[in-house]
# Entry
Amino acid sequence: MSLIVLIGAQAVGKMTVGKELEKRLDAKLLFNHQTIDLFANFLGYSPAAFALSNQTRIELFKAFVHNEANNTTKSIIFTVLIDFDQSSDLAFLQEIAQLFTDARQEVYFIELVADIEERLQRNCHEDRLVAKPSKRALAFSRNELLSSFENYRLESLPQELTTLFPTIPSLKINNTHLSPDEVSQTIIAHFSLT
# Structure
C-alpha cells in the first residue's frame, strides 16, 4: 500500500495527472474537491465544510491502512493545495503521511508547479469544470486563483519538502509545458512505482 500526494496550487494539473497515474498503477484517485464539495453543498465553502472535509480524509486514510485485506486498490492518489506558510497545512501533510508510515507503508510527495498564464488557461478546461462545480463560476474562480497567487505561498522553496519531510521521498515538477502523460511517466520512473 502507498499514499501518493500530489501537491500544488489551483489549476496546476493535480487532478489530471492523478487520473493518468490511476490508469498506470493499482491506485484510486481522491482529488480534494470530492470531499470539499460534498460538505460545501450543504454548508457553503465555510470553515466547517473544510474541517469536515479534512476529518473525512483522515478517517478514510486510517481505515485504508487498517483494512488492507479488503481494500479495492493498492494505493491512494490524493491531491491537495498547501500554503507553505501555514503550519496547519504542513501539520496536515505530516499527519496523513504518518498514518501510512506508522503502518510501514510508502508515502510520496509530488509537487506540481506551472506558470500563472498556463494555470489560468487550465482553470477553464472542460474536465476541471465537470469535476469541480465551484469552478464553473469562471469569473469567481479566476479571481480566487489570482488572489491566492498573490496572497499565499503555494509553491515550496528549493529543497523545502525534503527539509520539512526528510523521510518522505519527494519530487517537484514544473509541468507548464508537459502533458499529464509525460508527468505521470516521470513520477513512475522517478519512484520506480509499479
Observations:
- The mean pLDDT is 93.
- The longest helix spans residues 47-66.
